[in-house]
Specification:
By secondary structure, the chain is of the alpha/beta class. The chain is built from 16 helices and 18 strands. Strand 8, helix 7 and strand 9 form a beta-alpha-beta unit. Helix 7 crosses helix 16. The longest helix is centred in the last third of the chain and has 19 residues.
Length: 467
């Protein structure tokens, strides 16, 4: 049988075709995804298998596979090749000799030990060894073997992707490792998620908090949620507008290194931030970046501007791009790839987004934008998919591997970011750039997790400013 036929079909060996002493093998390497899938399927969340911190303190000192992961591989051999389709399990006896750890390669060998002609039962010796030749599982299996030949097309299984949101969240927070907490003012955190997000950031060692809002309301809310305001400085103000005014003044005076928006409206806070005489303006245009961890994309993805600038001009886009590039470099991307988005990838005089994209790329060539690699106009598919770019004949160092997506206007950017968050389970964080201090600016519907992740970015920015 050819290799193509072997992969395309599944075929059994009947009772009469099997002789005592015949054997079959299967080789598998244990991956973290195997442990996660087995835990999901079985509901077995024994910390020895799924909790690395606990596993390191256990007798084996590392995460180990569920014992029946190896047992399931024995069943795989019986059901798919030896004897194969038509096999009925009758009995199984297994002895587990040693654990299977991540990266171990297991060889499953089944050998025909006995045949019983009166009922077509077969007893198999079962042996599982690791890459060092040590026995992992030994035992026996009894089956009712098929008596009719069966050859069927091999069924294609759906693609299954493990989306470990907690691991992605932990990876984002890892960028702050070794950094000391920053001083942060939280503006009017008077609903559950904004208060929980701030306190999660405190508990993660990201920030020392100054909560600005009605003190009685904050105390009552924390009691209702069962949260402690310990180590938080509270500034009592009557309403959200006063909270925004005080927070901006603290930042302007250098008393806090970052701001976090609470349950007030964005324009209420930003009106104070952009005030010409008392605000936090710099020589740069203020802009916003969503930093998103999308499970189906191999690198962090930044989207700008989807929250501040409604319909930016070419001049304003220069600052928007430069702000995003500077942030990317702060979080460890040495030369970020910047895709200037439009509906099409060709310059069209009737579409301003394409003209702006072409101009921005030429400005980068002339040193008016620095630190990144720009290309555009690029349609969204060309920006994130190498296959799509090649299909359209686009040759670019940016296409298919963009780190930053620069959108034409706030509507397209906001829709894109929310689609990724709600339909693609992207882990989202948001930050305001171009002001004197970083500002965590999230939607009132955003979770505490999003607010904490955003604080991690503010922390990196604040430490970069210290330097």
């Amino acid at each position: 049988m050819s290799q193509i036929e072997t992969h395309a079909f599944i075929e059994n060996r009947t009772y009469d075709e099997i002789e005592v002493g015949d054997s079959a093998k299967l080789v598998r390497t244990l991956r973290n995804e195997d442990i996660q899938l087995f835990a999901i399927m079985s509901g077995d969340v024994n910390p020895a298998h799924v909790d690395p911190e606990y596993a390191h303190s256990s007798m084996f000192r590392e995460v180990i596979a569920h014992g029946m992961w190896g047992g399931a591989l024995i069943s795989t051999v019986l059901g798919t090749q030896f004897p194969g389709p038509g096999t009925i399990y009758i009995d199984q006896s297994l002895h587990f000799s040693r654990p299977v750890t991540l990266g171990d390669t297991i060889t499953i060998t089944l050998t025909c030990q006995k045949k019983f002609d009166h009922n077509h039962h077969i007893v198999f010796d079962c042996l599982c060894t690791n890459q060092d030749g040590f026995k992992v599982i030994v035992g026996s299996a009894e089956v009712l073997a098929p008596i009719e030949k069966i050859r069927r097309p091999r069924m294609a299984l759906p693609v299954f992707t493990i989306n470990d949101r907690q691991a992605r969240y932990d990876h984002l927070l890892a960028m702050t490792r070794g950094l000391s907490p920053i001083s942060m003012a939280v503006v009017h955190p008077c609903d559950a998620e904004s208060l929980k997000g701030a306190l999660m950031a405190r508990d993660a060692g990201l920030a020392v908090l100054t909560l600005i809002g009605p003190k009685e309301k904050l105390n009552r809310l924390s009691e209702d949620l069962g949260l402690s305001l310990a180590a938080c400085n509270i500034i009592d103000v009557p309403h959200s507008h006063a909270a925004a005014e005080v927070a901006v003044q603290l930042a302007r005076n250098g008393e806090v290194e970052a701001l976090m928006k609470g349950s007030l409206h964005t324009d209420e806070l930003m009106a104070e931030v952009i005030n010409q005489s008392t605000g936090l303006r710099t020589h740069r245009r203020i802009s916003h970046v969503f930093l998103m961890d999308v499970p189906t994309y191999p690198r962090p993805l930044m989207i700008t501007d989807a929250a501040i600038n409604i319909e930016p001009t070419l001049e304003e886009k220069v600052d928007i791009v430069q702000n995003a590039i500077d942030l990317a470099r702060m979080i460890g991307i040495p030369e970020p790839k910047v895709a200037i988005l439009a509906a099409v990838e060709l310059v069209n005089p009737k579409m301003r987004a394409t003209l702006d994209a072409a101009a921005l790329c030429k400005m980068a060539d002339r040193g008016q934008i620095t630190g990144g690699l720009l290309d555009g106009p690029l349609a969204f598919d060309n920006a994130v998919s190498i296959v799509a770019a090649k299909t359209k004949g686009i040759r670019s160092a940016v296409a298919g591997q963009a780190d930053i997506l620069v959108v034409p206007d706030i509507e397209s950017g906001n829709m894109l970011a929310k689609q990724l968050e709600y339909l693609a389970d992207a882990l989202s964080s948001g930050i305001v750039l171009g002001a004197r201090v970083p500002i965590v600016l999230t939607s009132r519907a955003d979770s505490a997790e999003t607010r904490t992740a955003s604080t991690a970015i503010a922390m990196v920015m604040a430490h970069a400013k210290r330097k």
